[in-house]
Structure formats: C-alpha cells, structure tokens
Design goal:
The protein is globular. It is built from 4 helices and 11 strands; from the N terminus they run ββαββββαβββαβαβ. The chain has one domain: Hypothetical Protein Pfu-838710-001. By secondary structure, it is α+β, with helices and mostly antiparallel strands. The longest helix is centred in the C-terminal third of the chain and has 14 residues.
Length: about 190
Amino acid sequence: MKDTEIEIQVKIENVNNLLDFLKENGVFMFENRQLDEYFVPIHRDFTKVRPLKEWLRLRDSNGKYSINYKNWYFDENGKSYKCDEYESRVENIDSLRKIFQVLNFRSIAIVDKLRKVWNYKDYEIAVDSVKDLGDFVETEFKGDDERRDPKEITKEMINFLKGIGCGKIQRNYVGYPFQLLFSEEIELEEN
C-alpha cells in the first residue's frame, strides 16, 4: 500500500476547457456526493499550528465510509508538496464518531461536495463543487515511479492544466476545511 500522496488542489478560471478535455481524453470513473467531517483531539489541536499540517477525517461517500489521516510536508516557503496518508474503510461511521467523542476528539468542520473523477495517464483528476467555497480541481499523481521528486511532479500537474487552457490557476495549499474555518487567512497563490 502506498502511504504517500502527491496532489495539488487549485481553483481554475475555465473549468469547461478541463471538462471538455477530460470527456474527450480521460476515463470517467464516478460522480458522488462526499460529506467529510474533520476532527481534532482536544489534547493536540491540529488547527493551532501554522502551516496546518495534520487532518483527521471521516468520509461518507454515498453510503461508503472511510477514515483518513494526513500529515503534510512543506518546502522552504511553507508550501505543501506531499503528505503521508493513511486511509481505511469503516463499517459503522456512527460508532466511530462515538469512539472519537469518548476519546475527546471534537468535530471542527464538515465539507459537503459533489465530486466528478476522471483518470488521465498518471493522474486522477477530481472536479469538486464545494458548498460555500465554489469549484476546485484536485489532481493526484497515481504513477508508480516513487524515485521522482514530488516538487517536479506538482509542477508537471500545473503545466498540464495550463496546457489545456484552464486560464488563471490559483493553488490552494490549505484544503477545504481550513478555508471554511479560517477564511480570513486564505490567500490562493496564482501559478
């Protein structure tokens, strides 16, 4: 199992060019609604650290449940470029919420999104419509060459989006829950 994830999350000016490209060249995988609930332990509040580097999430994806933990790595400018990711299916999400409550984890954010996913070459591309935030694109590297530099791979993903005419591309280094919780701290960086 691969426990490292290399992905970018961006807001793009022209999502229609991307959708047209994917419809013609990609392989459509699925569309679903995802409800992601984020938690922090009371004794170690992840949201107090900047840049924020950890997330613990429960996901309901059309009645299929999972738990996920991410621990992000940052470059010298404080920009994320990869993360350790551990994920597992969950049989009973309500029981896991009760366990979190007993262990003093508190819910801090719920992200409600409609996700459409395509595969194209070494990329999984998700077009997300996120309640209260708008439309975003997540591009994740799914290739198997782990010797490549993650920073180079993220540059290639940005260039891929530029190459198909997505217009202005703004990189989101903090994720959807952070944007919902701390909108006053958000500065999307243009690439």
